[in-house]
Design goal:
With about 650 residues, the protein is mainly beta. Helix content is about 0%, strand content about 50%. It folds into two domains: about 500 residues, Methylamine Dehydrogenase, Chain H (7 Propeller), CATH 2.130.10; about 100 residues, Sandwich (Immunoglobulin-like), CATH 2.60.40.10. A nine-stranded mixed beta sheet has the order 5-29-28-27-26-20-21-22-23, with no helix packed on it.
Length: about 650
């Protein structure tokens, strides 16, 4: 989305876009066949300059919200829904690697997303690519930064005319790993200000994400191609990169959506002019199917696009592209699927609570990235069924919960039906910004943001195992506790990303944002976490003990004081996230080690500003390992 100066939000950047060819505004399935307006090859990503953090307020930019989608009618009513209003049973969750991703870089919000590659069979090294608004970084799976962060605009610098992206960090970046080809796909909006618009797409030349990329810029003429989302669809013939866009004529007036298929085979080969085949429909808010697992969709299976058509139904289009003869491409409106009636989280707007009173946007008016598709094989490798999982944010009592679905297909290319659904809202906290995925044995996980009037926005997840009742999740796990709230601005982000590691088809990787501290003024110092875990079934989850070396701490104004927090392991080791609440104004807290892998210790340091209010204050130190939470009380005296 369009970045704007914080000092003058109304001032617009001057955008340079590629010359575009005309597209049709016919909302009734009209077809557009497009070629890139420009193509090139990038330098090696590792040769691009590091994009350093901009600290001057004059250099900071706000990413405005995604364009709102049309209001949804209540619909005819669907099957009864299950609202999970209490914590689920314990799953055997094995935390694995956890590390910090790209941090505050002058843009807000970050819209963090990742793709996870295969491990090299010789070196054993595997890569994770993370994109946030304006930046691109490559990590290995231990958390070591390999390349970057570099500015996304620098990736497109060799495109003739820049393709719109070399001069604009317009936002909505998405990264995909194409496991079947062992390649990487990076996309970004070319512009969000007219008169013309474009989408930039980069495909790596090999399996090294730090190497060079084939670059393409596709025109959208006078239609803003808002909220682009991509999926990998590697069928044996007419394989495609699927994409969905919400169209806005002249950047303002809703004009339906474009459902697109890009010629994957040609792009992987670095062809000069790979075509895209797009169909325009009247509704908006679609997500494209995105393959997980090593088994491709049966050949001839069309690409799927799903949205919620009403407040009690899902709508499905299938697109069968024919790149050899585009006129024979077909778009079909498949039978809709009735689901439990719901109301959009925050009515699609802003109501997510934080401890500082600043409300956050829910983005409850659309399904949340990704629409993860997986094929399961039976005896002899014969198709058994395929599943798709997806989620969105809905009203749950007085707060917001995560509604999730599993759709199933029992024959190749056959009709999809609702296998199970649930709304995860085990307490009155707010859960939103979800991303869903399913591993190779059918475990479903959903990562999301968690917040309330007493909980700083945290990174959390829950998981469903096949042994649990349909529509239910196990106990909630905290991947990264928050230690601060966003202030002044309600935009939390547009999407997060939960992935399956293609090397084992078991490990989930998730990225989301959080804050490490508070600020009385505009707080743009977000951080991102990248964490991995596996899911199983257990009745004896790991637990821990929590204590401080003293139950009181005295700190003079203008100085700091410390105490030691000790975590003890019970029923096995676990990763324990620490937080502290109850701090008076003009004080701050930090942990020397966080999270702590039990058994272990961390130094809690309390710092008081010279104008901090004096007196005694009761603080609560909290530890959470995802399956258990414990507290220890600490009396703080400011002198």
């Amino acid at each position: 989305m369009r970045p704007r100066n914080i000092i003058n939000v109304c001032a617009a950047f001057i955008f340079v876009t590629a010359v575009a060819t005309a597209t049709t505004a016919d909302p009734a399935g009209a077809q557009t066949v497009s070629h890139p307006s420009s193509a090139s090859v990038s330098p090696n990503l590792s040769d691009l300059p590091i994009d350093h953090f901009r600290q001057s307020p004059a250099e900071l930019h706000i990413v405005p919200p995604a364009k709102p989608l049309p209001q949804r009618s209540p619909g005819p009513g669907g099957p009864p829904g299950h609202i999970q209003g209490e914590p689920g049973s314990h799953n055997a969750i094995e935390p694995k690697t956890s590390f910090g991703g790209v941090g505050a870089n002058g843009f807000i919000p970050p819209d963090p997303n990742i793709a996870v590659g295969k491990n090299d069979p010789v070196t054993g090294v595997g890569y994770i690519v993370q994109l946030v608004n304006s930046q691109f970084a490559v990590f290995d799976k231990t958390g070591k930064l390999v390349t970057g962060p570099v500015s996304l605009s620098s990736l497109w610098s060799s495109l003739p005319g820049g393709g719109g992206c070399a001069t604009n960090n317009a936002g909505d970046p998405v990264v995909q790993y194409d496991a079947a080809a062992d390649r990487w796909l990076v996309t970004q909006l070319g512009s969000t200000s007219g008169p013309t618009y474009s989408e930039c797409i980069a495909v790596s030349q090999n399996n090294n994400p730090s190497g060079a990329y084939y670059l393409y810029s596709y025109p959208f003429d006078t239609y803003l191609n808002d909220y682009p989302k991509f999926g990998v669809w590697p069928t044996a013939t007419n394989s495609a990169y699927l994409a969905s866009y919400n169209l806005f004529a002249n950047g303002q007036n809703a004009a339906g959506a474009k459902l697109c298929a890009y010629d994957r085979t040609a792009m992987l080969a670095g062809a000069n002019s790979p075509i895209s085949i797009c169909k325009q429909v009247s509704d908006q808010g679609f997500l494209p199917a995105d393959l997980d697992g090593a088994t491709p969709p049966p050949d001839g299976t069309p690409g799927y696009f799903v949205n919620f058509a009403s407040l009690s139904s899902l709508s499905i289009y299938t697109l069968a592209p024919n790149f050899a003869d585009p006129t024979n491409s077909t778009l079909t409106l498949a039978p809709g699927i009735a689901v439990a009636p719901f109301n959009m989280g925050c009515g699609g707007g802003t109501c997510i609570a934080q401890p500082n009173g600043q409300k956050l946007d829910s983005l409850g008016d659309r399904l949340m990235y990704r629409l993860a598709y997986r094929v399961f094989s039976g005896t002899g490798g014969v198709f058994d069924h395929a599943s798709m999982v997806v989620n969105h944010s809905v009203v749950a009592g007085s707060s917001v919960g995560v509604r999730w679905y599993e759709l199933r297909q029992t024959s190749p290319g056959g009709a999809l039906s609702l296998s199970q659904q649930g709304t995860f809202a085990p307490d009155t906290s707010y859960r939103w910004m979800g991303s869903a995925a399913m591993d190779g044995v059918g475990n479903i996980a959903i990562g999301y943001s968690l917040s309330s009037g007493s909980i700083y926005p945290a990174v959390a997840f829950a998981a469903h195992t096949p042994g649990l009742p349909d529509g239910t999740m196990g106990a909630e796990k905290i991947l990264q506790a928050g230690a601060g709230a966003q202030t002044t601005y309600s935009r939390w982000g547009d999407y997060t990303s939960l992935r399956i590691d293609p090397s084992d088809d078991t490990t989930f990787w998730y990225t989301n944002e959080y804050y490490t501290k508070n600020s009385r003024l505009f707080n743009y110092m977000w951080a991102t976490a990248i964490s991995s875990f596996t899911v199983g079934a257990s009745t004896n989850p790991p637990d821990f003990s929590l204590s401080t070396s003293s139950n009181s701490l005295t700190v003079r104004r203008g100085a700091s004081g410390s105490t030691t927090v000790t975590v003890g392991a019970i029923n096995g080791s676990s990763s324990v996230n620490l937080s502290v609440s109850g701090l008076p104004q003009r004080t701050s807290a930090s942990f020397g080690t966080n999270p702590v892998t039990s058994t272990g210790t961390s130094t809690l340091t309390i710092s008081a500003n010279r104008n901090a209010p004096t007196g005694p204050y009761n603080l609560t130190v909290t530890g959470n390992n995802g399956s258990a939470s414990h507290t220890s009380q600490l009396q703080l005296t400011i002198q």
